[in-house]
Amino acid sequence: MAFSLTSCADELAELNENPNAIEDLPYGMQLTRNQLHLPGGQYEVRRAAVGWGMAAVQQLADVSIATSILPGDKYIDFIDYSFALYDDYFTQEAKDIIDFVIRTGEDPEAVNYNAIGRIMKAISFHKVTDMYGDIPYSEAGLGYISNTWFPVYDRQEAIYADMLSELEVAAGQLSASAESPGDQDIIYGGDITKWRKLAYSMMLRLGLRLSKVDPAASQSWVQKAIAGGVMTSLDDVAKIEHSLDTRINPVSEAFRLDTFIRLSDTFVSWMQDNSDPRLDVLSWVESGAPHQGLPNGLDPTTLITDGPAGGDLSDYSQINQILVDREKPSMLITYAEVELMLAEAAARGWYNGDAEAHYNNGVRAAMENWSFYGVSTPSTAEVDAYLAANPYDANNALEMIGEQYWAATMLIPWESFSNWRRTGYPVLTPVNYSGNATGGTIPRRLKYPIVEFNVNAENINAAVANQGPNEYTTRVWWDAN
After folding, report:
1. How does pLDDT run across 68-80, given as a tens digit for each residue?
2. Pfam families, per this entry (predicted)?
3. What is the DSSP letter of 370?
């Protein structure tokens, strides 16, 4: 019997071995694959980032109800879209990122790979915790690595502390004398100086995220990031180039498949009110009519009665289709964001830089950033005229910076939604569509998947007990009221 059981166990072990698995996957190949997945996949970007995030902050709008294309437009409880990021992330991206950091951390010759992996880990996890709050972090992905199939939910406060620490460690690890990933690094081509700038730029973003809940810690991390050295030009932008042969731009699928989506009237009107030259870059009206945004919260019936251009969607602004082509890049963090964050730090008195100069640099960089998408951008004269007509006002600094950040992060949906929740700018008027799930208030987070309450009940219930009800209106830790 003992022999039989041993034989059976051996056979089962063999059955559980993947004959196609690569036991010693080269670091460079794994790095490239992980980088391609950093922006997210079509499934979760279309549903969570575009469907919830961009609509909730009124960059986009739609009139559909039956298909719930943009549940964030009317705050409809379309749960499948809410858990899309969670569902896809923890079955794929999390385990790949964690595995890469663990493997490279065990090899003293892979110091730069490990540092880059740590930076990517922060980029990767912060979009998820920002959308849900408490999530599996310390035990994330370990089901595939060490059979830890029921991970604890770490508190967001602890997650942020670790992500910031990881960025600090990574910046210190990066070494020009150690092996470089070279061309297998599709973000910077192995440029260690740019990776260090990225680490500190991400530290700046995450540090500012704490400004409402822990101003002292926020200031400390912001100052540390600035001292370390953040992005200094458009050449430092962290982006993923896409192609039909590798991985297409995930945002593109939302606009390709969902023909009801239009630019929000809130977004278009803001640009019109400020004579913003970006409007001609971003907006395309199929009928050839003037730029006209679609008000949020309309359906096919109310579009006819309340739509400013009537009931024909072809008269409303769509996003310029060139910008959402399948082969256009995905932005992870831009130089424009960094300059606007430096302006905020200076306006808060946390940094002795020139807030107005950084604000102007941020606006200019945000307009120039569209050149990466292959379109003509506003001329220097047009940008100068825009800044002259809309000068920086120190008495209204945080609102102006917040509005420009909202515009600069168009097509960086995770960041648009998160920074709006942190700053409250721009000031948005919520909709109160019949049957909405928030009582007519703009969502503050996404809901956890229902299945988690069945398969990992103890840990997710602990998260709910700590954070609050699993509702769209519950605020994550850093989003203090």
Report:
1. 689 999 999 988 9
2. SusD-like_2
3. G
